[in-house]
Amino acid sequence: MTLANKQAQDAMRLPAEQLYRDEIEALIKEDKGAVPPGWQMSPRAVLKYITGGKAGKLDITPKYIGNRRLVEMAIATLVTDRALLLIGEPGTAKSWLSENLSAAVSGNSGLVVQGTAGTTEEQVRYSWNYAMLLANGPTPEALVRSPIMRAMESGSIARFEEISRCASEVQDALISILSEKTVSVPELGSETSARKGFSIIATANTRDRGVNEMSAALKRRFNIIVLPSPSDLETELSIVKKRVGEIAASYQLQAAPPADEALLKVVTIFRELRSGMTLDRKEKLKSPGGVISTAEAISLLTNSMALAASFGSGELTDEDLAAGLQGAIVKDDDKDKLVWKEYLDNVMKKRGSEWRGLYQACRELNE
């Protein structure tokens, strides 16, 4: 085994273009469609990569389970010179879709600007190696290109995560880039023009709305797609089952996968608390203050599997699930504890013997 393969095998998390390398290579090999400039495969092949199918004898695993039309709209946006903004609640696969679109279109999902309150304009445009700058003045060697600038030079897709968490002046640095498709470096008297294939996929969380509202001028540079939460129980169950299996395999958790009954219970609890109503729509419920997303359900189940593997028999028990539920639902405030207690006593307790073990385990932890 080569050193590179050993490092890849030991990596906690591989980028999508490495994790699904076989699928991408198979899709490129069989692709007969028109490939846009700067892309490595046609839009139809990108769609198959995202939504799943067959490439020759190889199964292409679905990366996004949901509305296929939204994926088509996202891919069509990237064919044009418009940038793409994915908006949604936490856990609606915005970053996952962004990463996999970049991997399929450009073969590189690593050109990322992570939006935070501390993100600066230099991280969007360029900065300098100050030791070289002081020694030799502004030179091309001292220039530190941002991921966006490198994407412009290579004709690739850059990702801008959580854009609405950045200050307004940082967001506005994107306006000229998206309009002119150039970055000027006045210190060098030079200008970098974007090659064909360049685009930006940004993500924004609806929970951050109002933190740093995007300007109308910036929004006009994007085609905006809102990613919804899974529309029905079966879809959410499919997503959770698939991702839990993938993560458990990646971490080599020595625990049996959750039974369908356990998956159903967790997803039912999450959907009811998220919507504020039981699935049969007969009883209104209070929702906790924290996020009750599909991603949280996946995290809960994998954590419960780790608990069962490390300190149990390897079989997921009600006690393992209860520990995960307590942490996922009761975040940091007494109100959540009260909401969870009401759900346990008014809903779960009345669901009969099948739910009795989980109810008692949850009740003991929430005392």
What does this structure look like?
With 367 residues, the chain is an alpha/beta fold. It folds into two domains: 3-226, P-loop containing nucleotide triphosphate hydrolases (Rossmann fold, 3-Layer(aba) Sandwich), CATH 3.40.50; 233-365. Helix content is 50%, strand content 13%. The strands form four sheets. It has a five-stranded parallel β-sheet with strand order 4-7-10-3-11. A two-stranded antiparallel ribbon has the order 1-2. The chain has a two-stranded antiparallel ribbon with strand order 5-6. Helix 12 (233-251) crosses helix 13 (260-275). It starts with a helix and ends with a helix. Pfam families: AAA_5 (PF07728). GO terms for molecular function: ATP binding; ATP hydrolysis activity. It comes from Paenibacillus ihbetae. Residues 84-222 form the ATPase dynein-related AAA domain. InterPro entries: ATPase_dyneun-rel_AAA, CbbQ/NirQ/NorQ/GpvN, P-loop_NTPase.
Total count of strands: 11
Strand portion, in percent?
5-15%
User: What's the name of the CATH homologous superfamily of the largest domain?
Assistant: P-loop containing nucleotide triphosphate hydrolases
Order of helices and strands: HHHHEEHEHEHEHEHEHEEEHEHHHHHH
Query: Which CATH C-level class of the largest domain is it?
Result: Alpha Beta
Counting DSSP H or I runs of 4 or more residues, the number of helices is: 17
Strand order of the largest sheet: 4-7-10-3-11
Query: Overall 3D geometry?
Result: globular
The tally of structural domains comes to: 2
Fraction of residues in helix: 40-55%
Low-confidence stretches: none
**Major β-sheet annotation:** 5 strands, parallel
Q: Distance between the terminal alpha carbons, to the nearest Å?
A: 52 Å
GO molecular function: ATP binding; ATP hydrolysis activity
InterPro entries: ATPase_dyneun-rel_AAA (IPR011704), CbbQ/NirQ/NorQ/GpvN (IPR050764), P-loop_NTPase (IPR027417)
Protein name: ATPase
Pfam families: AAA_5
